[in-house]
Every structure is written in C-alpha cells, then in structure tokens.
Amino acid sequence: MSGETFFAAAGMGATVRGVALVAKDGFSARYDLDRVRGVFSRADHKLAGESYVGRVLVLDAAKGGVASAWMLHEMKARGVIPAALVLNAVNPIMVQGAALAGFTMLSGFAVDITQAITNGAMVEVDPTAPRPFIKVL
Amino acid sequence: MNLTAEEQALRAGEYGPAAQWAIEHQIKVGEYLGAGDFVPVTQAHIMADTESLGEAGVEWLERLARLPAHARRVRIPTITDPRGTDFAAAHRLKQKPWMVELERRAITAFEALGVLMTNTCINYQTIMAPLAGEHVAYGDTGVVIYCNSVCGARSNFEGGPSALAAALTARTPRYGYHLDERRRSTLLVEIDFAPRELNEWGALGALVGRLAGDYWQVPALVGIERVPTSDEMKHFGAALASYGSVALFHIGGITPEARRLGDVLPAGSNVRSHEIHEADVRTFTASYARAIDSVDVVVFSAPQLSLIEMAQVAGLIEGRHARIPLLVVTSPQVKGDADRMGLTARIEAAGGTVLAGMCFYQSYARELAEANGWRRLATNSAKLVNIIGGYGYRPVLMSMPACIDAACNGGKIAP
Questions:
Q1: A136/B contact by beta carbon, under 8 A
Q2: Which of B69, B174, B198, B386 is the most exposed place for a label (fewest CB within 10 A)?
Q3: Do B159 and A77 touch (CB under 8 A)?
Q4: Is B392 within 8 Å of chain A by CB?
Q5: DSSP alpha helices (H): ranges in B35-186?
Q6: Contact B28 A99 (CB under 8 A)
Q7: Do B160 and A93 make contact, defined as CB atoms within 8 angstroms?
Q8: Which runs of E-coded beta strand occur in chain A?
Q9: Domains in chain A: boundaries
Q10: Considering only CB atoms, which chain A residues are within 8 Å of B362?
C-alpha cells in the first residue's frame, strides 16, 4: 500500500528506488542465478526465469554458500545486478558481499517483509537513515 | 565497535593500504552484525575460485598484489579452497583457455600475498584441524560447519573477501559463532534410524537444513546411536550448511560441546522440535530421481574425497569399466597419496578421471555442461545435488556403489 514504511534492523549501501521483485524464497547468487543472463535459474526457485537486473529483491533468507561474497562484486562490475536486496534474515556472507561491492541491503523486520511488500510495487530503500527502511511509493 | 590501539593503527593506515582496507571492511561487516569488538584468529581459509571472482575480482586481487611486499602479506597461516580447474585436466574437461588463464592470474596474486595454495575444502582432514575453542576465519560452508561442530572451533562463514581481511589483520569481528550464547541449540531434531551410506548422511543433513531455515539456527540432533566417521560428518555437515545456510550443529552424546545434551539445550529450553524418519530420507532422495532413468556423467565431489573415499571408489570399480565420464575429485594432498598407493591408477585404468585441487561446481559447471553435453548428473553428494540445479543440471542422488554401477552401465540407473 502506497506510503507504508517498514523499518529494518540493519542496512548498508546507498539509497535506491526500484520495482520490487518479491517471493517467499531464499537467495544465493551461486545457487539461484544465471549471472550471465541476469535471471533466476534454479528450476524450483519461486522466481525461476525472472530477470533480477535493476529490481529490488524482497526475499526471505540468505541461503547457500560463501560465493555470494565475491559474486555481488563481480555482478556489479558487469552491471548485471539487482538494485537492492531486502531480506527477513541475512547471513554474514551477504553482508560481506554487500560491503565489498558497495551494494544496498536491508534485513530484519518486525513483519514478514515478503508478505508486506507487493510484487511489482515501486519502493524506496534507504539504508542511510538512522532507522533503515523500505517504503512503498 | 571498540577498537584497540593496534586496530586504530590498522585503520589509520599505519600497516599499509591492504590492512587498512581489510579492517574497514571488517568494521562495516561487524557493525552490521552487531559485533562489539574483534577477536584474534589463528588461521584463515579463503574461498576464491575464479567463477566467483570473475575478471573484476581477479583485478581487485592483483591491485593488492602490486603493493610493496611489506604492505601486502598475510599475518597468519592462510590457505585456499579449491580452484576452478585442475590444470592437468583442463583440456580434457574442455575448459576454455581464458578460464585457465584467469586461474593462473588469481594464483599469482594470492601467492604474492603470502597465501598457501592448498586448494582444498577438506583441510580438517588433510592440513591442520583446529582445536576446540580456537577462533579461526574459514571460508567454504562445509569447512566451517565441520570445524565448528566436530572440532569445536569457532568461525562464522567468512566469504573470500572477509577471510582475506582476517588474514591481513589477524582478527575478525566478534559476532555469531565466536560467542558462547550463539552456540546453544535453537531447535531439537529427533532421529530414529541410522544412516548407512554417505548419500544418506547427506540427505539427513539436507532435511535438517530445510527445517533450520537460516544461518542463526543451531540444530541439536538426538537418536544418533553410533559415533559417525569423519567422512559421514563431512557429508552430513556439508549438506546441512548448503540447504540451511547453517554453520553449527550438535549431536547429543557425540559432538564435543554436546557430550551432555543439557550443555547446549538447558532443561526447560523452549525450542521447536521435529522428527526425521528413514522414510523422509527416501522421499527426499526420490524427489531428485523423478523421470530420470539414465545420466550423462557421474561426479564424486563437494566435498573433495578423503583418502578413504578414494580407496572405496577404487575398490568398487576394480575389474569394471566406466562407459560414461566418471569424475573423482580430491585435494592435492590426497592426490599425492592416492598416486603413491596406486589408487589413482586403479580408478583411471577403469575409465575414471581423478581431478585434484578443484571442485566440480566451482569449475564453470555451466560451461562444462555445454562443452561436454552433460545435463543429467549422478552423485553421492547431497550438497552437489542442491547446488548444481542452478547451473542447469538434472541431478540424481545415489549411493557411491549405485553411482559406480551407473557409470559402468553407460549411465543407466537401476530401478
């Protein structure tokens, strides 16, 4: 719903705006993505076949291994990267990857953020605020 | 974060720009995850295959490597996870020259930083297992979960950049599994059967991982009656970390912090509990086998094989011949022993290919599939099954003997 704001426990990176791509599913750059084509490639991922490029990904939890710590940096260098990553639960790898890449990320909400944000909504993600937030525009 | 005088000097650049970048990176990570200070670490283990690094990551490493020698060297013993190729086999695998060249550049850069190129994800079986209570900065989720749970060491998942940062500063932010309070169990899983084959241990790990759900969960298992082997714990932990992003588990009466379950799950703890039965493992395994009656390639990898597993493969394929590609992936340390003991020769005489210092999924798996016509893959690694689907494969999880049978039957899977 327009104007609704959801505050996160932690945030990193710059303020961005974009169209939300939402699913109650996990995120791992190695496990889930075709990073050349810029789409979700894991067949049983709820966003399989969807382009993630330039979108604000709103997902449940960081999953998988340690590769995402390098991959976000590599994806950013080629410009085939989401605008931001917004998660209910983060793991250290996503934090480390976002720190290296200078990538925008939020995590930790009082509500299930994948239920709170509608797929396709235009949102603003501001990790620089005293209380980092995602806002539906 | 509270910084010591030495940490403030690192931040001020008094130890050079590499260490300065490292501690700034660590402060960003530590502040995000609520660390109050740093903890000294004794070893670092870096995951940095070039499929993950890409050209951008290799160039980034090369910039560090061009610094003066005194300003770029790691400060603690630092080792590496598998590379993206086995140089001796790259041509046979149909890897492209640019992949091999990128690997060479990454290795040259790491060597300039003083990193030991061990190229293994089973360092706890081959290099130097950490002691209980030892704080380390390990990459590779399988390494972290094994060393935390089986050895009692203390590490978070440290991705390549953060493991390198820890190597350059000899410390890491104190959060997560460096803290006593984070190591207590958050869920209880009751098991009423005994896994036998390694793939069954992996399947059990996968099921526990799915139940756990995220990095901050610490499962405690009860009902495991027999002390597992190192290889069984390796497959269990690797799958648990892969499916659940979990970094620590306990097994009541077995793992060092849970000799008494009450040590990790105090009486009256209000944690969720689950049961896993043998039928759940069968259902999990069957879910991958639907509509697949033959495979194009058999892969033993993820984690790399121990010397014991190498001997098992050699024994199972003795007197037979693989009629489809059979890839057997191990560490450079085990490969030397396998060569000396004739295991490599026995596997390769039977048509297998022994690869060292790489890992299948970290070696441009998508391009390998396209170049070799591989789509359906059999393995006894639940971790590999979980990962490889994202690279376009149809994986099947089977026991090691069943995988060998499939390789020798032209890929056909026994019903």
A1: no
A2: B69
A3: no
A4: yes
A5: 50-65, 97-112, 123-126, 141-146, 160-169
A6: yes
A7: no
A8: 5-12, 16-22, 26-27, 33-34, 39-40, 56-62, 84-89, 105-109, 122-126, 133-136
A9: 5-136
A10: 67
Biggest CA-to-CA distance, chain A: 39
Q: pLDDT tens track of chain B, all 415 residues?
A: 999 999 999 999 999 999 999 999 999 999 999 999 999 999 999 999 999 999 999 999 999 999 999 999 999 999 999 999 999 999 999 999 999 999 999 999 999 999 999 999 999 999 999 999 999 999 999 999 999 999 999 999 999 999 999 999 999 999 999 999 999 999 999 999 999 999 999 999 999 999 998 999 999 999 999 999 999 999 999 999 999 999 999 999 999 999 999 999 988 889 999 999 999 999 999 999 888 999 999 999 999 999 999 999 999 999 999 999 999 999 999 999 999 999 999 999 999 999 999 999 999 999 999 999 999 999 999 999 999 988 989 999 999 999 999 999 999 998 7
CATH T-level assignment (fold) for domain A5-136: Glucose Oxidase; domain 1 (3.50.30)
A92 contacts in chain B (CB < 8 Å): 29, 33, 156-159, 162, 175-176, 215
ipTM of the predicted structure? 0.95
Q: Where are the domains of chain B?
A: 5-180, 184-285, 291-408
- Whether A41 contacts chain B with CB within 8 A: yes
Q: Is the Cβ of B325 closer than 8 Å to some Cβ of chain A?
A: no
CATH 2.60.40.10 matches B5-180: no
Domains B5-180 and B291-408 share a fold: yes
- Spell out which residues of chain A touch residue B176, defining contact as CB-CB under 8 Å: 92
**Which residues of chain B are within 8 Å of residue A71 when distances are taken between CB atoms?**
52, 54
pLDDT in tens, A49-77: 999 999 999 999 998 789 999 999 999 99
- Specify the DSSP element, H or E, that contains B22: helix B17-32
The CATH label, of 3.30.499.10, 3.40.630.30, 3.40.50.720, 3.30.420.40, for the domain at B291-408 is 3.30.499.10
* Strands A5-12, A133-136: pairing kind: antiparallel
Looking at beta carbons, which residues of chain A come within 8 Å of B54?
70-71, 73-74, 77-78
- Nearest Cα to Cα of residue B146 among B224, B249, B45, B242: B249
Cis preceding-peptide flag for B303 (omega within 30 of 0): yes
Q: Which of residues 69-108 of A touch B (CB under 8 A)?
A: 69-71, 73-74, 76-78, 89-93, 95-97, 99-100
> Which parts of B33-116 fold into alpha helices (H)?
50-65, 97-112
Q: d(Cα B170, Cα B224) in Å, to the nearest integer?
A: 37
